[in-house]
Amino acid sequence: MVVAGGGPAGCAAALALARAGRRVLLADAGTGPPKVGEALVSAGGVLLDDLGAGGRVLGSGHLPCYANLSAWGSYELRAVDFINDPQGPGWHLDRKVFDGRLREAVRAAGAEVVERTAVRRPVRRPDGGWISVLRGPGGDRAVRCRWLVDATGRGAAIAVRCGAVRRVRDRLTAVCLTLDAAPGAADGCSLVESAEDGWWYTAPLPRGRRLITYFTDTDLPSAALRTAEQVRLRVWATRHVRRRAGPHGFAVSAVPRRAPAYSAYLDRVYGDGWVAAGDAAVAFDPLSSQGVLTALYTGMSAGRAVDARLRGEAAALEGYAEGVRRARAAYVRGHRAVHAQETRWAHRVFWARRLAAAGDGARP
Fold this sequence. Notes:
Blueprint: E1 2-4, H1 8-19, E2 25-28, E3 39-40, H2 43-50, H3 54-57, E4 63-65, E5 67-71, E6 78-81, E7 90-92, H4 95-108, E8 112-115, E9 118-124, E10 130-136, E11 139-145, E12 148-150, H5 157-161, E13 166-168, E14 172-179, E15 189-195, E16 198-204, E17 210-217, H6 228-235, H7 241-245, E18 257-260, E19 264-266, E20 270-271, E21 274-276, E22 282-283, H8 291-310, H9 316-340, H10 349-359
Parallel strand pairs: 1-2, 1-12, 2-8, 5-15, 12-21
Antiparallel strand pairs: 3-7, 4-7, 5-6, 9-10, 10-11, 13-19, 14-17, 14-18, 15-16, 16-17, 19-22, 20-21
Helix pairs in contact: 1-4, 1-8, 2-8, 8-9, 9-10
């Protein structure tokens, strides 16, 4: 088995396959800026335990997440805390540490892990297997395998090459800025605050730093934030984010970075000898706070479905696809309901688009 992508989805798929006794190669391209500021709810710890990696991955280096705060639909700040969650608080992840430990767990499970290496030009063989080129620092290497797992992110590079079609639901983008450390400023909570042309997210990061992220549509003027000063001026128009950002300051040298945040999915998540997982299969708006959890779940489920198919369970992959469809349908219903709560700026393009989608009654 060759798994393309060394993030949570790819690692979960590789762990599931390796623990089932399959010979696995995980290729992590390691391209693009590292992800920061993501959280994992406590249910993610259960999935990692199921994969035999919980203790290895969720040790030191992450911060506890005790509550999610939001000012949405009004200026009032509301809290959803985890004090009554039987599994305890979640985690504000150090994604570099998290992903690195996941790959270590994949190695410990007996799989081969190759980093800074991408899967290129997979070609189907007459005998039903694949030949793929692994392109890394040492040059190209051809490998043969029975199945490919596409965990390459929203681009879904392998699935699209195999004929799957990506459906993109919106134009959401993220403008992210990491603020310098401020002693004692970490409160253990994430915060979401809506604004007239989008919404804000902020969360503490390890080592006293803080992430602030502005979400808007790529075609709107509000997306044109190029400097820390431009971000600072827009943050100062908020009520709640500015109070958390203030102690950290806005270093002149800090440069905002952009990341795709749109909702997307594949018209089919498996085919002849391949299966997609994580954002390659279905990508959610970060407002859902389900990104890492969904990546782990779909990765584990995809790996188990491939193993079951190879053991003769003909409907295993259709069962996986149905699980992805149900998760996406639930997400779309929740997404519409949450955005329908914010009516203060219904005349603004960003919100008008979402309110129209909430009221159109269309299928997910």
